[in-house]
Specification:
four-stranded antiparallel beta sheet, 17 helices, twelve-stranded antiparallel beta sheet, elongated
């Protein structure tokens, strides 16, 4: 029986400690640099320390990294001391020659700056500085003293992380991402080490050992009779190792194309046997109207998905935008979607391959279902008959009317009726989407979002000041404002319905038997959560449109 490889338990990656035994087997364990040597690997794939200064009592660990051309390797391996001296510092030599600190000659090649920590003289917190070409390659985004990048699907991945405590610091980079960069540049990573240990060991003779291989060169010595009281012995590991580049994934989003497999999706059911019919979403293998792949399904073959496929996107409105016709991720990708008569999501087969990142296709395949229900009439008219069809999405219409009311109020009074929402509430309102679940609770969060935007955000204080009123209730103040400008207060009624739904309809509080009555009064009894939200949005958009028209009329 074989035991699976579990890193840290049943296996570990090859390191300097496996190849060079003398330092690790030193008779005084406190002076054996086994811990430092275990972190020095020829082929790292996890986090890699690239810059470090850590002092523990008298012990210390120092690491510095540069990238070098292949012509610089022999010179770098010719001695154990650090090969780069001017990188990361501006200098002037002989009053004339300028050193920018970005690169320097090393043997028959050159070295380039990669990373350093700027201590800022203690006047400000330390800051990490990284090679700009490396950050540009990954289109990296800074987050304090860390960096991350976004892949072609819009998913974040850590790239550089740092730990800084006082004068001690450690900076690490994701090793695979570092090695991908090196391969693209045709460069090598040069990691330079200086690790010192002190101990109260009994007297021993000087020990010194050297080691060199194709990927590293190190020297280690241990000596007794040192000047630190109660720590008369020390050992020092000094040297450097090479990191080589490798092709493949991960790659930056801008390089991620053309080398992945396409998922097969269910597109139908065999009428005679009941067997499911599947086909690849590779856009080069489907047919079109011009004779391409005549025996294959058409590019515009609809593929159906359980509506829960959208949950992961609706749960992350900061990253994804979902409307009735489109799903978008940041500025990374976007795909056309539709909703069938049964509430399922449909997407065209060719679009799944052309517009959806390969990382997302497995998620959609897991929610793929045989076709059921009927394509939305407006979608068919637009996409197959070339007709202008379909009304504006109710929630989009509501958001547009919301902006229109505030613009009309600014023109009439100099201030908006609805105060700016907090950042989280603003995102929730901007990306509000009909629920994909059919349970009653699915309507709770959308109603709360709408109530914050249309009830809680009413600028009651300013309205009271304008009207010189003692009224406390925000909706009544809004009605009084419309009356004051010669308008019709009944325009506020749909917002009152929303408030009633939140307060007494089982959203913010337990409602018991009143829920059914309130749902009936609001006009959403018997509707699915998605249809109920669209009904509310339509009513609220109409209310806001009337209010805006009354304000504009009084302004003129």
């Amino acid at each position: 029986m074989t035991i699976p490889k579990i890193d840290g338990f049943t296996s570990r990656r090859r390191s300097l400690a496996d190849e060079w035994l003398e330092p690790t087997q030193f008779e005084h364990p406190a002076l054996a640099p086994a811990v430092a040597m275990a972190t020095i690997e020829p082929y790292p794939t996890d986090w890699l320390i690239i810059e470090q200064y850590v002092r523990r009592d008298h012990d210390s660990d120092g690491v510095s990294t540069a990238t070098i051309s292949s012509g610089a390797r022999d010179e770098a391996f010719s001695d154990h001391s650090w090969s780069t001296s001017s990188l990361g510092n501006f200098g002037i030599v002989d009053d004339t020659e300028v050193e920018l600190g970005l690169s320097e000659s090393v043997g028959e090649g050159f070295a380039e700056f990669f990373c350093q920590v700027q201590l800022n003289h203690g006047l400000r917190p330390p800051t990490v500085e990284m090679s700009q070409p490396f950050l540009w390659f990954w289109d990296a985004i800074r987050d304090g003293n860390d960096w991350f990048y976004v892949d072609s699907a819009g998913v974040e991945y850590p790239l550089v992380r740092s730990t800084i405590e006082g004068d001690n610091y450690t900076v690490e980079v994701r090793a695979l991402e570092f090695r991908r960069y090196l391969a693209q540049r045709g460069m090598l990573g040069l990691i330079q080490h200086d690790h010192v240990l002190w101990a109260a060991a009994p007297k021993f003779e000087l020990r010194q050992h050297d080691y060199e291989s194709d990927w590293c060169t190190f020297t280690w010595h241990a000596a007794h009779g040192q000047p630190i009281p109660q720590h008369p012995a020390l050992s020092r590991l000094l040297g450097k190792n090479i990191i080589t580049g490798i092709p493949g994934r991960p790659v930056p989003a801008w390089l991620d194309y053309g080398d992945h497999d396409y998922e097969d999706f269910i597109i139908g059911v065999n009428d005679e046997t009941g067997a499911l019919i599947s086909f690849t979403c590779d856009p080069d293998k489907v047919s079109n109207y011009f004779g391409k792949n005549p025996d294959a399904p058409n590019y515009l073959t609809p593929v159906h998905f359980d509506p829960k496929v959208l949950d992961r996107y609706l749960d992350d409105p900061d990253r994804y935008s979902v409307s009735s016709t489109r799903l978008s991720a940041l500025d990374m990708w976007s795909i056309s979607i539709g909703r069938t008569s049964t509430g399922d999501v449909d997407v065209y087969l060719g679009d799944l391959g052309r517009d959806m990142p390969w990382q997302e296709q497995a998620h959609w395949r897991a929610h793929n279902i045989p076709p059921r229900g009927r394509m939305n009439d407006d979608r068919f008219r637009r996409d197959f008959l070339g007709q202008f069809a379909g009304e504006q999405d109710p929630l989009d219409a509501l958001r547009e009317a919301y902006r229109a009311v505030n613009e009309a109020a600014k023109s009439r009074f100099g201030w908006p009726i609805f105060r700016p929402l907090g950042s989280n509430d603003a995102v929730a309102f901007a990306k509000l989407h009909p629920p994909v679940l059919t349970t009653e609770r699915a309507l709770v969060q959308p109603v709360l979002v709408l109530a914050k935007a249309l009830v809680d955000a009413i600028d009651s204080k300013t309205i009271k000041s304008l009207l010189e009123s003692s009224e406390q209730q925000s909706l009544r103040l809004l009605e009084l404002l419309l009356i004051d400008v010669g308008g019709d207060a009944s325009a506020v009624q749909p917002i009152r319905h929303l408030y009633r739904l939140r307060s007494s309809g089982g959203v913010a509080h337990l409602a018991g038997e009143s829920r059914a009555k309130i749902h009936a009064a609001v006009g959403i009894a018997g509707l699915s959560p998605a249809d109920a939200l669209n009904k509310l949005a339509n009513d609220l958009a109409g209310s806001l449109t009337q209010i805006a028209e009354q304000l504009r009329k009084s302004d003129s």
